[in-house]
């Protein structure tokens, strides 16, 4: 093989690797308030530019600008701030506990709280969420009980609603419209479209919202979802959380240097928005726009939420092995919690003192929950491994078939 | 009672359930306007409308995955994969998602999806239109796997599958769509109209999943089989005048091992016949369970007749296909052990 032929194979790389000095000054993040907001019934062909720009509402001083500024009252904003902060406190506590070998696995969403919380708040309670493992904020927004539904699940203890059948952080709640989290990536994406198709078939107004990552847009399921959503005009919102990293592979490996992820919707004739994912108001406004469109029978919207994964992929990952240690500090779109706090302060609805009080209150609450959970034991305790043995053969089928009854007897339970 | 072939019987099952339950919805490639390439859904879109019976993009993964979402949202989707050979793009959705959803959510989310697909050989279909992939699904906890051998069972079992709250892989031996088949490639299809199982009620009925049927009583050897091979076995036994008991298992998962074991304990001999690739086929599972249940009553090693461990060929189809001669050879081998 000649040298020149070898050079034709282009393998994209990250912007920065360990040892490099991170500098994001070349990124064009646009200006808050600059992007137009079309009417929801606009033909997707007339708004293709929205797939390449970046919808931002809050400027660097926390002031809300432009046509995308949503109508949302201060109480709602304080609620959003509270849930984002609770999510972060929870993540920090669980991460530490995993490091103390109290459970097998955990995964944080630091820096991405707004893509879950703001999107969920912009929907109705009967709309169905199809999350990935990084939308714990959505579950909290839907009113999940931090102790019984989340910590006990993570610990697989006797109160675990999944009865030890699932990895930690793979929550489910039919009651709260939070779909069971899978392992293979993006499999839930076309399932959300099917859920939305059923909603349309039944003549209901409920819509489905799914999140997936930038890396997993490369999966076939991503394309099945867009194909079926476009064909049948399914009332759903298909979010792509572009947090720049798929474990150690940069978003360029999923094709991100050629075009935007939002632009993938254009080929299917779907409206596609690219949104500042660290801007609570922008995420809320874009979701509300897409939801209104879906409820009006106009079908699906693709939304790229441009954000940054501040922490490692999971507790099994060391990000300093593949990116500069200080890269997160240079991310130009800031921290979603700090930005919403600044906005609330700028409109006179919050103070720094209140914020600190809230942080202390939530920290105390998470610690109290943790103490209760910790007293119930952990997966390393020999007896805890058998807590749910009786449930091992249940819920494989609606009714236990003879071969499973026989196997249960063989195990002696 | 009406005379029906298997295609008409399956059509009738769909018709009954579309009429009975508004949550039943049917889609797949070409199943809508045209009524399916094998015409199983013929006339149903016209009768029930495009909302309930419709065409899908050529995307097996998309068909199954959206059906899961529909099932979660209260529908009973019945989807057709045009040929079982093309089910693999949907395999991850079937295995990782559909089969395990109930378990992983501890019963909070379920998807009562029926996946229908024509399978099997004997139709000059070559390697991509003749496969028998049932073992891929019998190995997956959470799925039920059904394969009928005649129009009466096909209708009753399909009705039960659609009404089942668990996901079902419903495999249709396409060699039997138009009539029984004795394994002789030179004989044209015999009409189901002359067969007792071709008499099919037009009204609703269902057959329980997980029940095998003893289709011929006998004393000397038990032959366990399903799908197309039921008829090839029957013809072989009849031709050789062997006093064999023949069991059509009909449902692979859950397997009615009790019926099989009772028969083998009586005859002391067992031959398992299927058309799938030999190694790791469902025949191996049946043999294993018979050995566990009947070892002390067996008078000869259990034999199996299957397809060879090669891809399904085109020109050499009848060398690959387990015909009457191979079945008789296996039966005689087990009978020869005194």
Structure in a nutshell:
The complex is a heterodimer of chains A (413) and B (338). Chain A is an alpha/beta fold and 413 residues long.
Label the structural class of chain B. Answer: alpha/beta
Strand order in space, largest sheet of chain A: 1-2-3-7-6
The averaged pLDDT of chain B comes out at 97
Number of helices of chain B: 12
**Major sheet of chain B: size, sense and barrel closure?**
7 strands, mixed
Count of helix runs of chain A? 12
The computed structural class of chain A is: alpha/beta
Helix content of chain B: 25-40%
Beta-strand percentage range of chain A: 5-15%
Average pLDDT reading of chain A:
96
Unreliable parts of chain B:
none
Radius of gyration of chain B: 19 Å
User: What sort of overall outline of chain A do the alpha carbons produce when their principal axes are compared?
Assistant: globular
Helix and strand string of chain A, N-terminal first?
Answer: HHHEHHHEHEEEEHEHHHH
Annotation, overall tally of beta strands of chain A: 7
Task: Output the radius of gyration of chain A.
Answer: 22 Å
- Indicate the percent of residues in helices of chain A: 25-40%
End-to-end distance of chain A:
63 Å
The termini of chain B sit apart by 47 Å
Give the strand content of chain B.
15-25%
Descriptive account of the structure:
- The complex is a heterodimer of chains A (413) and B (338).
- Chain A is of the alpha/beta class.
- In chain A, 36% of the residues lie in helices and 8% in strands.
- Chain A has twelve helices and seven strands.
- A five-stranded parallel sheet of chain A has the order 1-2-3-7-6, sandwiched between helices.
- In chain A, helix 7 (220-232) links the parallel strand 2 (208-213) and strand 3.
- In chain A, helix 2 packs across helix 3 (113-121).
- The mean pLDDT of chain A is 96.
- In chain B, strands 3-2-4-5-7-6-12 form a seven-stranded mixed sheet, sandwiched between helices. In chain B, strands 9-11-10-13-14 form a five-stranded mixed sheet, sandwiched between helices.
- Helices cover 34% and strands 18% of the residues of chain B.
- The termini of chain B are far apart.
- Chain B contains twelve helices and 14 strands.
- Chain B has 338 residues and is of the alpha/beta class.
- Chain B has helices at residues 6-20, 44-48, 60-72, 91-98, 101-104, 134-138, 151-163, 229-240, 257-267, 282-294, 317-320, 324-335, and strands spanning 2-3, 24-28, 53-55, 76-80, 114-119, 144-146, 168-173, 199-200, 213-216, 221-225, 244-248, 251-253, 270-277, 303-307.
- The model of chain B has no long low-confidence stretch (mean pLDDT 97).
- At the A-B interface, helix 6 and helix 7 of A face helix 3, helix 4 and helix 5 of B.
């Amino acid at each position: 093989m000649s040298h020149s032929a070898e050079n034709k194979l282009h393998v994209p790389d990250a912007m920065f690797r360990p040892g490099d000095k991170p500098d994001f000054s070349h990124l064009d993040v646009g200006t808050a308030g600059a992007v137009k907001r079309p009417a929801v019934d606009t033909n997707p062909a007339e708004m293709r530019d929205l797939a390449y720009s970046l919808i931002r509402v809050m400027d660097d001083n926390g002031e809300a600008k432009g046509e995308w500024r949503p109508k949302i009252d201060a109480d709602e904003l304080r609620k959003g701030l509270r849930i984002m902060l609770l999510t972060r406190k929870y993540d920090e506590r669980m991460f530490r506990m995993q490091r103390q070998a109290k459970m097998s696995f955990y995964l944080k969403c630091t820096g991405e709280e707004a893509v879950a919380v703001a999107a969920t708040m912009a929907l109705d309670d009967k709309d169905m969420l199809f999350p990935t493992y990084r939308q714990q904020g959505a579950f909290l927004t839907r009113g999940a009980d931090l102790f019984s539904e989340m910590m006990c699940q993570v610990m697989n203890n006797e109160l675990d609603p999944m009865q030890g059948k699932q990895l930690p952080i793979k929550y489910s709640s039919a009651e709260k419209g939070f779909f069971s989290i899978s392992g293979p990536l993006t499999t839930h994406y076309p399932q959300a479209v099917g859920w939305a198709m059923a909603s349309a078939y039944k003549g209901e107004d409920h819509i489905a919202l799914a999140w997936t990552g930038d890396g997993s847009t490369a999966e076939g399921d991503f394309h099945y979802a867009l194909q079926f959503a476009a064909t049948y005009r399914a009332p759903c919102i298909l979010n792509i959380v572009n947090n720049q990293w798929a474990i150690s592979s940069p978003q360029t490996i999923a094709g991100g240097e050629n075009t935007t992820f939002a632009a993938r919707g254009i080929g299917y004739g779907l409206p596609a928005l690219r949104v500042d994912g660290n801007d609570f108001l922008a995420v809320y406004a874009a979701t509300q726009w897409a939801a209104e469109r879906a409820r009006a029978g106009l079908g699906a919207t693709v939304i790229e939420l441009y954000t940054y994964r501040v922490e490692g992929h999971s507790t099994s990952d060391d990000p300093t092995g593949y990116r500069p240690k200080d890269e997160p500090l240079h991310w130009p779109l800031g921290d979603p919690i700090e930005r919403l706090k600044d906005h609330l302060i700028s409109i006179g609805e919050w103070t720094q003192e209140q914020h600190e009080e809230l942080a202390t209150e939530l920290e105390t609450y998470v610690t109290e929950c943790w103490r209760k959970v910790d007293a119930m034991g952990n997966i390393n305790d020999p007896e805890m491994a058998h807590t749910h043995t009786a449930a091992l053969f249940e819920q494989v089928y609606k009714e236990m078939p003879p071969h499973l009854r026989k196997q249960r007897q063989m195990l002696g339970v | 009672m009406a005379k029906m072939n298997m295609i008409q019987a399956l059509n009738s099952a769909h018709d009954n359930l579309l009429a009975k339950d508004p949550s039943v919805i049917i889609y797949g490639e070409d199943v809508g306007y045209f009524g399916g390439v094998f015409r199983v859904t013929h006339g149903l879109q016209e009768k029930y409308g495009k909302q309930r019976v419709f065409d899908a993009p050529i995307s097996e993964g998309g068909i199954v995955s959206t059906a899961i979402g529909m099932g979660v949202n209260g529908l009973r989707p019945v989807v057709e994969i045009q040929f079982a050979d093309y089910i693999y793009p949907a395999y991850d959705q079937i295995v990782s998602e559909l089969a395990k959803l109930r378990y992983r959510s501890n019963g909070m989310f379920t998807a009562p999806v029926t996946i229908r697909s024509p399978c099997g050989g004997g139709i000059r279909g070559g390697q991509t239109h003749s496969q028998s992939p049932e073992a891929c699904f019998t190995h997956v906890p959470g799925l039920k796997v059904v394969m009928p051998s005649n129009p009466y069972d096909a209708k009753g079992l399909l009705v039960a599958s659609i009404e089942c709250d668990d996901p079902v892989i419903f495999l249709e031996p396409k060699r039997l769509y138009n009539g029984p088949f004795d394994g002789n490639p030179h004989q044209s299809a015999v009409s189901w109209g002359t067969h007792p199982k071709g008499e099919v009620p037009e009204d609703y009925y269902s057959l329980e999943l997980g029940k095998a049927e003893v289709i011929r009583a006998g004393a000397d050897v038990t032959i366990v089989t399903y799908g197309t091979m039921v008829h090839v076995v029957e013809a072989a036994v009849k031709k050789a005048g062997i006093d064999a008991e023949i069991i059509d298992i009909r449902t692979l998962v859950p397997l009615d091992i009790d019926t099989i074991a009772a028969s083998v304990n009586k005859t002391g001999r067992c031959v398992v016949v299927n058309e799938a690739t030999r190694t790791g086929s469902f025949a191996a599972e049946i043999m294993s369970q018979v050995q566990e249940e009947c070892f002390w009553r067996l008078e000869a090693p259990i034999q199996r007749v299957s397809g060879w461990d090669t891809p399904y060929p085109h020109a050499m189809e009848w060398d690959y296909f387990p015909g009457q001669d191979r079945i008789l050879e296996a039966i005689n081998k087990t009978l020869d052990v005194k």
